[in-house]
């Protein structure tokens, strides 16, 4: 398969480029890259990849075009890719706008865990996407983690806010905990290890059974100890409500950013 990545040295484009090479999905010369800063002599330790001179050169050389530029840069690409499978990673650029590119369009929403092969990537296919295309999409996305085909653009918007945000909310919680630990006078190495133990290690309890999260919270509450005292104040200050409002706001932004520009 010949695969092109527009935005090949960005956060996600670079993660995908590395993953398809490392997993052997694409041979070096079959990977055609484009970025704004020009050819890199070393791309993830490889010198055998191909570089396109511009968007139309890339499209001419591949069957699958991955669009990994920021949404605000999409218009300037003037992408014209008839007959190609076009895999967009962009938040907020709807199918209706992407269809102007002329290819068979798939919208996929990875997250930053793509960089270590742990993205969860839901995707949505336009009506003319074939079963053979679906096999290709699954194979490409499997290189960066797990994937699910979903049914509607509204679900892509919700998932842009949820899984698309990757580690943002855990990071927000970790930063808050770390600031508190420091303010409490804990030695820095201890503070760091303690917060990591909560956000990265203790959360492992939920792996494979995330649906039991509310039960775990209830178990802590029923214990009526120190954690219950903390949870009560967190909820009284709107912890769960804040999360819901944050996800609503991000979903609204995903739903409107591309459509407003179109209107
Ligand atoms: N970073 C993330 O966690 C996620 C990002 N996305 C989406 O993925 C897309 C890429 O995001 P990031 O990788 O974070 O952005 P980024 O800013 O790290 O990378 C974008 C790359 O595109 C390049 N670029 C821009 N215009 C170009 C052009 N005309 N020709 C060639 N290259 C061009 C930029 O130079 C940059 O290297 C965005 O649309 C974003 O909405 C989706 C889910 C998660
Ligand atoms: O924050 C963003 O806009 C990117 C796209 C989806 C998730 N992260």
Automatic annotation (TrEMBL):
<dbReference type="Pfam" id="PF14748">
    <property type="entry name" value="P5CR_dimer"/>
</dbReference>
<keyword id="KW-0521">NADP</keyword>
<protein>
    <recommendedName>
        <fullName>Pyrroline-5-carboxylate reductase</fullName>
        <ecNumber>1.5.1.2</ecNumber>
    </recommendedName>
</protein>
<comment type="function">
    <text>Catalyzes the reduction of 1-pyrroline-5-carboxylate (PCA) to L-proline.</text>
</comment>
<keyword id="KW-0641">Proline biosynthesis</keyword>
<comment type="pathway">
    <text>Amino-acid biosynthesis; L-proline biosynthesis; L-proline from L-glutamate 5-semialdehyde: step 1/1.</text>
</comment>
<comment type="similarity">
    <text>Belongs to the pyrroline-5-carboxylate reductase family.</text>
</comment>
<keyword id="KW-0963">Cytoplasm</keyword>
<dbReference type="GO" id="GO:0005737">
    <property type="term" value="C:cytoplasm"/>
</dbReference>
<dbReference type="GO" id="GO:0004735">
    <property type="term" value="F:pyrroline-5-carboxylate reductase activity"/>
</dbReference>
<keyword id="KW-0028">Amino-acid biosynthesis</keyword>
<dbReference type="Pfam" id="PF03807">
    <property type="entry name" value="F420_oxidored"/>
</dbReference>
<dbReference type="InterPro" id="IPR036291">
    <property type="entry name" value="NAD(P)-bd_dom_sf"/>
</dbReference>
<feature type="domain" description="Pyrroline-5-carboxylate reductase catalytic N-terminal">
    <location>
        <begin position="2"/>
        <end position="92"/>
    </location>
</feature>
<dbReference type="InterPro" id="IPR008927">
    <property type="entry name" value="6-PGluconate_DH-like_C_sf"/>
</dbReference>
<dbReference type="InterPro" id="IPR000304">
    <property type="entry name" value="Pyrroline-COOH_reductase"/>
</dbReference>
<dbReference type="InterPro" id="IPR029036">
    <property type="entry name" value="P5CR_dimer"/>
</dbReference>
<dbReference type="InterPro" id="IPR028939">
    <property type="entry name" value="P5C_Rdtase_cat_N"/>
</dbReference>
<feature type="binding site">
    <location>
        <begin position="68"/>
        <end position="71"/>
    </location>
    <ligand>
        <name>NADP(+)</name>
    </ligand>
</feature>
<feature type="binding site">
    <location>
        <begin position="6"/>
        <end position="12"/>
    </location>
    <ligand>
        <name>NADP(+)</name>
    </ligand>
</feature>
<feature type="domain" description="Pyrroline-5-carboxylate reductase dimerisation">
    <location>
        <begin position="153"/>
        <end position="257"/>
    </location>
</feature>
<dbReference type="GO" id="GO:0055129">
    <property type="term" value="P:L-proline biosynthetic process"/>
</dbReference>
<keyword id="KW-0560">Oxidoreductase</keyword>
